Each structure stands twice: as C-alpha cells, then as structure tokens.
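hey can u check if this looks right to u? its 226 residues, i copy pasted from the old doc so theres a chance i mangled smth
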Amino acid sequence: MTDAPHLSNETPEGDWADRMEQTVLDAALGLAPRLGWNSRMVRAACEACGLSQGDEELLLPNGARDLAALLSRRHDDRALATLAAVEAKSLKMRERIAAAVSARMEAGAADLEATRRCAAFLALPPNADLGLKMAWESADLLWNWAGDTATDWNHYSKRTILSGILIPALTMRWFDGREAAEAFVAARIENVMAFEKWKAGKDFDAPLKRVTDVLSRMRYGAKAPQ
C-alpha cells in the first residue's frame, strides 16, 4: 500500500476530503460487483487509494453507509445534469415527473452492478433509514427541477409520494430492467394524478396538513407562505 496522501499548506482540508471521497467511491464501484457493498469493500477501496485504516475512519466514519450516500448523491447530480437539457416548463407536470424519475433511474444504471450491490445493502433493516433519507433527498431535488415552489404541507406530501414511487421504481430498474420500471412509473403517476383530482376540495387530510404546516414553519420561519 502506498503512503497515505498528505495535505499541503495550500489545500483546504474540505477540498481534499471531497476529492478523496469521490476517488474512494470510484474504487468502490469497481470492487463492489465482486466483494459486495460492505466493510470489506470499503477497506479494499481505501487501500487502493493509499489510505490507512485510520484515514478511512476519519474520511468515512460510517463506512459502507457513507459510500452509499455518496453514490446516491452522485446519481442525483448525474440525473440533474441530464435534466438540465430538458425545458421543464414545456412539459405537463406528469411529464416532468416521468422525465425526472427516468433520468434518476438511468443515472444509477450507468453503474449497474455496483448499484445493485448498494441497493441490496440499503434493503437490509439496519440501513433502511438511510435508504429512506436518500430517496427523500432525490425526490426533493427532482421536485425542485420540476418547478415545485410549495413551502406549506404540499412540500412534504409531494416528496413523500414521490419517494414512495422512487424506491420501488429504482429497485425494478436495477433488477428487472428499464421497460418494467418505466411501466411501473407511468402507472403510479396516473394513480397519483387520479388521487389528486379526487381529493381536490376535500378536507380529509386536515390533520396531516396541520402537522406539515408546523414542519413548514420550523423550516421556513413563523411567516412561511401558505
């Protein structure tokens, strides 16, 4: 193993850490198909990048969970780069969401074998919380791209619904292929649109609205727009 990298006086520690995280992630993508997504893979990836176990613990204190989060965010960035070429305002809302989910699915498919191992890791009960968190982050970014500006309870309900579509859609894309995943997404979007039309003008979700309004005020301040 080579000597661990040292910071120069000119290199901010945060910049080095960000670059090294991505370098280790690159190594992990090559190792995961053979080793799985686990602590053994993390150690091997760090060794390949010249990091000692002590360096690994500083850079990735949560090990494989940290790398899973880095991979999800890389895929988010890749999806947004694809969507940057799409004029969202020229599409109907259902078309925007379909395009956004499709871009996110294909972003992960570029690292398919490693992504499958990561998905299996996130499906384990001890990691389910992280999987939900990353799905929420992805849903938030995709809704922002689609032009959603809600800051009231709709901000949370939209992301909750889209997270519920993303998790199974991504799983289907990794393991069942694009055609099955795209069909699933199209059907779920139709269901959501039908539900939204049906509930319009009804107040059965008033208790949820009350809770999410409180969350909105906590996030945006007491004078959050309604």
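The longest helix spans residues 153-176.
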